[in-house]
Amino acid sequence: MSDEPTRAQSALHLIVGELEAVLGRLESAELEELAQAVTDADRVFVHGAGRSGIALRMTAMRLMHLGLTVHVVGETTTPAIETGDILLVASGSGTTAGIVAAAEAAGKAGARIAALTTARESTLAALADVVVVIPAAAKLDRSGSASEQYAGSLFEQAVALVGDAVFHSLWKRSGQSADDMWPRHANIE
Ligand SMILES: O=C([C@H](O)CO)[C@H](O)[C@H](O)COP(=O)(O)O
């Protein structure tokens, strides 16, 4: 058998390399601001379209494991957002209509808004109290300069990892052990 990497292995190397590069360019102060805003909030609401939303659902689960009250916007049981809450949104483009509308509504309700986006100058970023810029490709960027991957893949992967990093830092600050958190894990699945 040849030692040559398969094409999927080559793709994995590409993805890991792109992630390392893009995550290395994140502003540490922005990440700290995000972690603090999440921990300061009464409740955390997450929202994103498509894969951006899927990535944030991973974060939502871990923040729940940490003991925070977390809701995914659009779920049947999600209540009204209000003052003291934070809406955490992810949108590579920063212009997805439903996400911008949600941020506007959350702001009017008195909630804080934290946005993960590639676009610091976007409508979404302008609405947000906390912005973490992930300098990946937005989904319509066909230049290949920010990423060789399809559409917003690099952004969406980075959102999941940023969420895990925020969770991990908050977990370590909390002093809880893994055993302390485990009873919150779903026991019907
Ligand atoms: O699902 C997505 C698409 O496959 C792009 O890679 C996006 O996450 C979805 O279209 C939302 O777009 P953004 O709000 O610009 O992240």
From TrEMBL:
Coiled coil residues, start to end:
none
The highest taxon in the source lineage is Bacteria
InterPro entries attached here?
PHI/rmpB, SIS_dom, SIS_dom_sf
Residues in SIS domain copies: 34-176
Protein family membership: Belongs to the SIS family. PHI subfamily.
State the protein's name.
6-phospho-3-hexuloisomerase
